[in-house]
Amino acid sequence: MTVSNINKKASSKGKKMNATIIPTLIDRNCLITGNISGTPFIRIEGVLEGDILEVGNLVIGESGTVNGNITAKTITIFGEINGDVVATESVEIRNSGKVTGTVNTTSLTIERGATYDGSIIMGKQKK
């Protein structure tokens, strides 16, 4: 079951839907094996062994690691990604961030101190 399906089931039990977006958090003590899709905002502080598909805003925290491919609107990386990254809007690799793989985006920021090993594809993203 994907994280988005869990969120939909939990929110459908209440009579009123809250318009506020509740971020999904993978805690630093969690290890998730599987894919995550369809959530509007996710922050990963733990480890994900799998792909992240069609999410809105993604933050990989300093203690976070993703071993898999990512497709999101925006991606901010303080931790580590081992896999290909596609962002329709932007990718930011912060000074503590480490990315190994291809980055495909329209806007890329790499701070001094960040580690990047791979290729970069810049231009308009296909939706």
UniProtKB/TrEMBL annotation:
What the record says about family reads: Belongs to the bactofilin family.
A Pfam family reported for this protein in Swiss-Prot or TrEMBL: Bactofilin
Query: Sorted alphabetically, which InterPro entries does this protein's record hold?
Result: BacA/B
Q: What is the name listed in the Swiss-Prot or TrEMBL entry for this protein?
A: Polymer-forming cytoskeletal protein
Write down the superkingdom of origin: Bacteria
